[in-house]
Amino acid sequence: MTKITVLAGGVGGARFTRGLLQELANTDAGSSVTVIVNTGDDMWLDGLRICPDLDTVMYTLGGGINEEQGWGRPDESRRTSTEIAAYGRGWPWFTLGDLDLATHIVRTDLLRSGSTLSEATEFLCRRWQPGVTLLPMSDQPVETHVRLAAAVDEHAAGDLIHFEEWWVRYRAHVEVTEFVQIGLETSTAAPGVLEAIRDADLVILPPSNPVVSVGTILAVPGIREALRATRARVVGVSPIIGGSAVRGMADHCLNVIGVETSAAAVGLHYGSRGSGGVSGTGGVSGTGGVGGVLDAWLVDETDAAAVAELEAGGIRSAAVPLWMRDVSSTAAIAREVLAISALV
Amino acid sequence: MTKITVLAGGVGGARFTRGLLQELANTDAGSSVTVIVNTGDDMWLDGLRICPDLDTVMYTLGGGINEEQGWGRPDESRRTSTEIAAYGRGWPWFTLGDLDLATHIVRTDLLRSGSTLSEATEFLCRRWQPGVTLLPMSDQPVETHVRLAAAVDEHAAGDLIHFEEWWVRYRAHVEVTEFVQIGLETSTAAPGVLEAIRDADLVILPPSNPVVSVGTILAVPGIREALRATRARVVGVSPIIGGSAVRGMADHCLNVIGVETSAAAVGLHYGSRGSGGVSGTGGVSGTGGVGGVLDAWLVDETDAAAVAELEAGGIRSAAVPLWMRDVSSTAAIAREVLAISALV
Questions:
Q1: Which residues contact residue A246 at a Cβ distance below 8 angstroms, ignoring those fewer than 6 apart?
Q2: B259 vs A51, A245, A295, B294, CA distance in Å?
Q3: How far apart are CA B144 and CA B176, in angstroms?
Q4: What homologous superfamily does CATH list for B43-136?
Q5: A95 min Cα distance to partner chain B (Å)
Q6: Where in this chain does the entry annotate a coiled-coil region (chains A, B) (predicted)?
Q7: Chain B interface disruption, residue of A44, A83, A125, most B CBs within 10 A
Q8: Which residues from A are below 8 Å from B101, CB to CB?
Q9: Edge to edge, what strands does the sheet with A316-320 contain?
Q10: What is the ipTM of this complex?
Q11: I want to staple A239 with a disulfide (CB 3.0 to 4.6 A). Which of A152, A199, A207, B164 is the partner?
Q12: Which residues of B touch A103 (CB under 8 A)?
């Protein structure tokens, strides 16, 4: 009856969790998994509340994901998006598929009617049956923005733009000076989040973006403290293999907070739980650390040289194959997480 | 430079106005047309504000209507609607096409951001260029409901249900005892509405539903009085031909307010402007009359016997072909409206 809690962003966290569920189905059918999902990428678009990471996890675990692109639904049309653009509305660089759109419409309707994001998420999951308890990190809106280093298009130097605009429109290829997370400091963890960390046997940081996904979750007041205090083992999986991001553009985010793009640097950025506060700055700002959060950190077999450095930093480490090529190879990674958690 | 104002519901009013515009293009290119549209059928569905009559008029005049069904856009998919239904939301009997959906999303976004319905309508019309000034009858929400005579499905006898549910789900085939228009008494005419009636040379009541379309517009405080006071001629076109509704189910609505389904009865229900208040009960309740609103009333050639009855009631009348088979035959009806308006 192992209780496992995963702190996830979008695609990486979703795919890792799918592998974890397969592994558990084979080895520990009585286990239960809670996934706490980053909501810092959430946004309003055309009056609809979009929650990219929640939906990616829900669709991936519920069998409704577009496997090729990693987000959205398969075989979607852009007809409604195109119509919205014909009115001069929306963001031309961010289109909503016609099937995915229904999720946003239903969620927005629920939120406008007074439901919390937790309640709306639970409602949506009744359809998708993801096989986990899916929790937003917070019910309060937290929106990650980036501050532009230089003028670009209609934006001036120093302007804040939504993370999704930087990420999707500019593919993170314009320089930014900092992340600004509107609403973060006054947010509180959603119902069940702190309990899921406290009562877990194992907490996993999957290969999600360490800055704007896991870093954002860690920065919600109370969550880092819960990770430091839990009796659970805390094991992370490096999203960096051989000096570059497995997927996405985590390197651009790491650059912004001054962390090297390497498996060792990211593990040490999260820091050791045993460090008593001297290491561990892992978070979106890179300076908010109040002690590390990791017991163990898996790196890819090609990063075996990082193991000694991590262990010198108080973090148990092992080098194992970390490419999530398919569900089966991802289940093998989850098996390594379970294995190392038994050693710490 | 004739100024013409039309009081319209959905399909009938939209198609009539399209014919009117063709007639004016040929004979009076300097004229201007304002269409005041019923908003009593408006509703919230899945958190989106739906304005069936405004959209039907806008699409019809802007070249975006589904000609066959008379509402919505051509070649739409129901994929998003089907997804919403998969969540157990929406009304299974009322689906939103994927193209039409964009209009509702943009309008709702504008309304939620503080725009009035007039402003949102003006914004949407920038795309569609309907060739008229399109005005909602009111910026305040007015929603027509019907009171059920007997229990049906999940509703009890005496329950109020939204007009669209009665109309679309039950095809008006369950008995109702009255129309109840929530918000009507405290509503005010939208900006420009009373002026468009006051300053017109000609006001036209097209073959729209006399109870829930034109009747609702007339019941907005101030509109009937404006029609009584305007220097314009007021000419109506019968939506009843040979004892039945040209389109839709106006007979069911007329039954509810105790008016016979005949061209003469509907004309007399609107009443003569010259009657000084003794005739004219035209409105949704059938009892709200404070004097009639018509100078003239066109009936179909098959209803020629009604002409004498109407003229005895103080309403100039003529029997002419009233079937709107296509734009050209509809333009001919508009020509008859212009002709009779010159005689009163």
A1: A12, A207, A239, A240, A322, A323, A324
A2: 53, 74, 81, 17
A3: 13
A4: CofD-like domain (1.10.8.240)
A5: 12
A6: none
A7: A83
A8: 80, 83, 101
A9: A133-136, A32-37, A3-8, A202-205, A233-237, A296-300, A316-320
A10: 0.91
A11: A207
A12: 83, 87
- The beta strands (E) that lie in chain B are given as 3-8, 32-37, 43-45, 48-50, 133-136, 143-148, 160-162, 176-182, 202-205, 233-237, 240-241, 244-245, 296-300, 316-320
Q: Which residue of B89, B112, B113 is in closest CB contact with A109?
A: B89
CA B279/CA B46 separation, integer angstroms: 43
Q: Which two tokens stand for residue B161?
A: 């249900």
Q: Which amino acid appears at position A327 of this protein?
A: V
Please state, as a whole number, how many other Cβ atoms lie within 10 Å of the Cβ of residue A343: 11
**What is the second-level CATH architecture of the domain A3-40+186-341?**
3-Layer(aba) Sandwich (3.40)
To the nearest whole angstrom, how far is the Cα of B164 from the nearest Cα of chain A? Answer: 20
Location of each CATH 3.40.50.10680 domain in chain B: 3-40+186-341
Task: Report the run of H or E that residue A176 belongs to, with start and end.
Answer: strand A176-182
How far off is chain A from B6, nearest CA to CA, in Å?
26
* Euclidean distance between CA atoms B18 and A7, whole angstroms: 58
Q: Does the pTM exceed 0.90?
A: yes
| Chain A touched by B63 (CB under 8 Å) | no
Could you read off the pLDDT of A269-295 as tens digits, one per residue? 999 998 654 456 666 665 445 579 999
Tell me the pLDDT band of B281, cut-offs 50, 70 and 90.
low
The answer to whether the Cβ–Cβ distance between B105 and A77 falls below 8 Å is no
Note whether B98 contacts A88, CB cutoff 8 Å.
Answer: no
CATH 1.10.8.240 maps onto chain B at 43-136
Give dist(CA B105, CA B128) in Å, integer.
16
In chain A, residues 290-319 whose CB comes closer than 8 Å to chain B:
none
- The pLDDT assigned to B282 comes to 66
Average pLDDT over residues A12-34: 96
